Each structure stands twice: as structure tokens, then as C-alpha cells.
Hints:
This protein has helices spanning 18-29, 63-81, 99-109, 112-116, 124-130, 152-166, 215-218, 247-251, 268-272, 305-319, 362-377; strands spanning 9-14, 32-37, 53-54, 92-96, 119-122, 140-144, 148-149, 171-174, 179-183, 186-189, 194-196, 199-202, 221-231, 242-244, 278-281, 287-290, 326-337, 344-349, 352-356. It is α/β, with parallel strands linked by helices. The chain has 2 domains: 9-49 and 153-219 and 341-377, 3-Layer(bba) Sandwich (FAD/NAD(P)-binding domain), CATH 3.50.50.60; 92-145 and 221-337, D-Amino Acid Oxidase, subunit A, domain 2 (D-Amino Acid Oxidase, Chain A, domain 2, 2-Layer Sandwich). The strands form 4 sheets. The protein has an 8-stranded mixed β-sheet with strand order 5-6-4-14-15-16-13-17. A 6-stranded mixed β-sheet has the order 8-2-1-12-19-18, covered by helices on one side.
Amino acid sequence: MSAGAAGAGHAVVAGGGVIGTWHALELLRAGFTVDHLEAETEPTGASVRNFGLVWVSGRRSGPELEAALRSRRRWEEVGDDVPGVGFRPQGSLTVALGEAERSVMEAFARHPDAAARAITLLEPDEVRVRNPAVRGEVAGALWCRHDATVEPRRLLLALRDHLAERHPRRYRFHRRRNVVGTERAALVDAVGTRWHADLAVVAPGAAYDRLPNTTVVAGALRRVRLQMLETAPLDGPALTTALADSDTLRYYPAYETAPLERLGPQHPVAAEHHLQLLLVQRPDGGLTIGDTHAYDEPFDFAVTEDPMTVLVDRAERILGSALPPVRRRWEGVYAQCVDEGVCLRAEVDERVWLVTGPGGRGMTCAPAIAADTLRVVGVEAAP
């Protein structure tokens, strides 16, 4: 399929999360008329249950890092046009709380992989200058200037409003349209409506195996459950960066070249729950803190307190003070490729493409994932 930027045709996108919304945006940019379907009144999945981190620092070298860097540029471009996205190019600090952690970070900072991500090692005094809210006894930190933050609970609506305003004749958002089947160049929703199009994209998130013809690709995916919390507004200096702890070095593939054995054994609760500390301050001053990872279904229906206690303790050590009261906790589930792919993209019916499985890369890499779908299907991207 080849189409130019004007009069490209009609597309239908199923999925109101960040992957589906970015596909709608890029299809409109390429000249398509887009019907955008969402199963719920508003999206409630992983796209709104996350930190809002555009996390370049942890990405695997190769296609994943390249996609993250392309996406980072697009987030900034769109953030300038759509203030409601809440784009903030604030960077991140991955903090060392002891000399062993610092030695690992020091070694990584000398590796070419660090330069590829604009990562440098900061001394303790430099950490406090970069983020005055860090008042704990820290041994240093890795500073990544490419990392950024968006607002996950606001950005989807902000993007849709922007698309509707900019393309009033070519963009329509349809709530409560649960897609249950596909046909040649068409999607079928639960009430029997057939959405015919020149191109259809299904971005179902963790519900990737609910369509009859997706069972073949479902084996390439798994679901991952996470737990997070949010505090009341922090009393004190605002955080000027996102924060992470040394367990992110164990979790993110970017750090595979670092001497991770120097970190020593992981805290038992952290190991059990595949825990890492990520911390972001929201515009109202509250702190989003997480997260854990569970890979074996069926998942527990309950939020577990022990790992959250460990995360809060680490956050307090970095900030050097008690956190405000916790005002909400939640869990979320996302889809992840079991190989090292950035996402799964497959034609499940003629001119019907399934796109899912970015895992924890979804918010970071959504712009590049959508642009690459257009390239794969032969759509000429807009300049």
C-alpha cells in the first residue's frame, strides 16, 4: 500500500491507549481520515497506569535505543504543540546509595553505551545541584539528559482534543466500541458494526489474545503485572529530574555492559518482586513511585505491601526525609514481547495489523512504533 500525504484514504484504529493514539496521530499526519475506536468510555489500561517516563537511558543498544531517541524527538515536537501532554525534558538521576553502586555506575559511565544515551556520572554535590530535592546521603548518580516526562492521565485526552481540533473533518473518536473480530480490511465491534477501511490497526494492549485470529501470534507475547503508588504533594523543593535507584541497573538492558556483580545480592523482597525504584513528581506535587514486576499468570488480585514498603524506604533515603502520606495505590498489566523486539507487529487479516507488546517501552517508544507501522505497510510518511 502506498499513499501520499493528501487524500491518503480511510483508516480505523482500535485502541485508545498510547500506542493506538499515536497511530491515529501519524495516520492523520500522512493524510488519512481516521475512525478511532476505544472499548471503554476512556482508556484505563497500562497507558494511564504508569510513570509517564520517556526513558531513553535504559533502552537496549540497537533498534530499541534508536526507536527511543526518535520517539524522544517526536514527544518534544508534539509537546510543544499540545501543552496538555505535559512534556518536560527534565532528565533523570539514577542514584547510588553506597560505594558499590557508585563503582558500577562509574564503570558504565566510561563505556560507549553511556555516551550513546548522553549519560554521565555526577558527584554527590553535583547531584544536589541538579536536583535540590535530593537531600539524602548519596554517593553519586548517573545523569541522563535525554530522559523526559509526560502526564499519562492527561495526555491521551489532550492528544485527541488536539487531533479533533486540527482535523475536524478527518478524525472521529468513538467510545464503547469493543472490537471482537476482523475481516478483510475491516474491524467488527461487539454490536456488529463493521468498520471498513483502507488500513486497520488494532492496538489492544494486554488484551492481545481476545480476537479469534490472534492466537497464532499470542505465543510471542506475555503479560506483566506491576504495582505502583502515589503520595500527597511533597513539602519541600520540587524534583527537577526523575529519580531511579541501582536496581534499575539490574532491570534495564542498557546496563548489561556494566559490572553488575559488584552490586552484590539483591534485597530478598526486591528479588521476589523484580523491584526497581522509579520516582516522578506530578504537576500537583504528588510523587508517583514504583514498581514491581510479576510474570506468572494468574496474577494476584491484591496489591502487596512488602515491596511498596521497600520502595518507600529507598525513596526516603534518597530524598533524606519522610514521604507524604500515600493517597492511592494501583496495579496494571501490560503486554511484552518475549524476545528482544520493540513490539509485535503482524498482519492478522488482509490490511489489518495488530500492534502490541512494547512492554515497559510503550510510553517511551510509541511515536516510533506508530511511524514504523506506516513504513512497514507502505504508507508514505508526512514530511
